[in-house]
Every structure is written in C-alpha cells, then in structure tokens.
Amino acid sequence: MSPIVNRLRSGSERTYNVLTLVFGIVLWPVAVLAVLASLANPTTGAVVAVYVVYGLLAWLFFFLASLFYRANAFGNMILLGPQQFPDLHEMVVAGSQELGFRQTPKAFLYNSNGLFNAFARRILGGNYLFLTSALVEANSNEQVRFVIGHELGHHAAGHLNGWLTFLRAPSQVVPFLGAAHSRSREYTCDSIGAYLSRDLTASRSSLQMLGCGCRRLNTAMSCEAFLAQEAMVPPVFGFLNEIFRGHPRLTRRVAAISEQTLSGS
Fold this sequence. Notes:
This protein is an alpha+beta fold. It has helices spanning 3-8, 11-39, 42-76, 86-98, 133-138, 141-156, 162-168, 177-197, 200-212, 223-228, 235-243, 250-263, and strands at 78-79, 106-110, 118-123, 126-132. Helix content is 66%, strand content 8%.
C-alpha cells in the first residue's frame, strides 16, 4: 500500500477498520456454527437451507449484474484515454502513478441527465472510476482533479477489496457501525483528493459544489460562509441525521480538509 495513503488515512478509519475486522473474525465462526447446528435440526434445517440457497442466488445475481454493468459501460459510456478527453485521462494517470497503482483504473464519463456524482467500483477484479457529465461540466479542472483523486483513494486505500469486505460483512449487524466506518473512509479519500489536487480552494469548493451544483455560481461560492453553516446545524438532529448515513455532511468534510491543511498533514 502507498505510504501516501497510510499517512493520509483518517484516524477514525483506522479505529473502525480494527473494530469491523474484530467483529467479522468473531461473528463469522459463530454464524457458521449456528448454520451447521440448525441444519442438523429437522425443525429449522429446511428454513436455514432455503436462506443458504437465497444467499447463493444473491451472489450469482451480483456476479451477473457485474458482467452486465461492465458491458453497459464499454458499450454506452465514454472510456477516457489518450485520444478520448486526454486532459481528464491524464488526471487519472497522474494520480494513479503517484499513489503507486500497478495499472491505471479504467475511467468512464457518462450522461447523468443532470445528476452530480462520481464513484469507484471494483468489477470482476478490475478497478473502475465513473464520472457524471453534470459534475465534469459544472466543475473546473482543478475541482475535477480533486474528485478523481478522491475516487482513486477508494481503490488505493483498499476500500473495495473483496476479501476484506467479505470478512467485515458480519459487522454490519452492529447498529450504526457500518455507516460510521463508511463515513470515516470518506474523510480519508477527501484527504487523498486534496493531496493530489494540491489546491485547497479547489478541493473545498469541489465538495461545496455537491451542494450548489451551479456552474454559473461556482466561482462566487464562499467557503467561509459555508463553513459557518456548521454552527447552525441543530446538534441533536444533526447527529441523528448523520449516524444513518454513509457520507458525512458537506460542512464537516470541508472543515476536515481545512483542518488537515492547517495541521500540515
């Protein structure tokens, strides 16, 4: 793993990585033993067997869905490359090289019909990035570089590692733990994106644009005014609203990048 990622990984993610692994290591044997014991019982064995079959069917569905999604990407989206939007492609290549990727992830641009989004996926062992047209159209090159760095961060930090995801799966039964782990990963990837962009203003405004979404007002946004909104979030309901979500609220994410820059990390 890249030393850059190790240095920029958030402290909360380090904590939740350990917790989710511990729960997974403890709960998987318990689950397996419980299934075996249930199968030996004529009363519950048939019910458990049905759920096992459902689980296998779910895995098969996921596998087939991945094949269809990859086919759709290559057939209907725009694959970035030296001859296809080379400026965007070079951002992906440069970020991948700096993070120590052996192979540059395949990056696609697609028509989102106005939806702002970008995400990383691991499909059948391959690393992929997806950028929506609305996000690229509304953001500057510097802001897009932050977004690409953030998504590369998910791959570089091992967030999409299939085996680790499987091992941690039982931890999802622990209330709020899965969402908290996900939020901590977003802070890590924001740090990686800011590091690769080397532009504090663009990094913070790129996150703020997720709330604004208007190209015409992009350069007029005030980061300081946006950060001041955090103090207006009702403490109790702000907390309740966030503990169910896999992403921190934007004011917190922008503040975290600002604090990281001030601390020199």
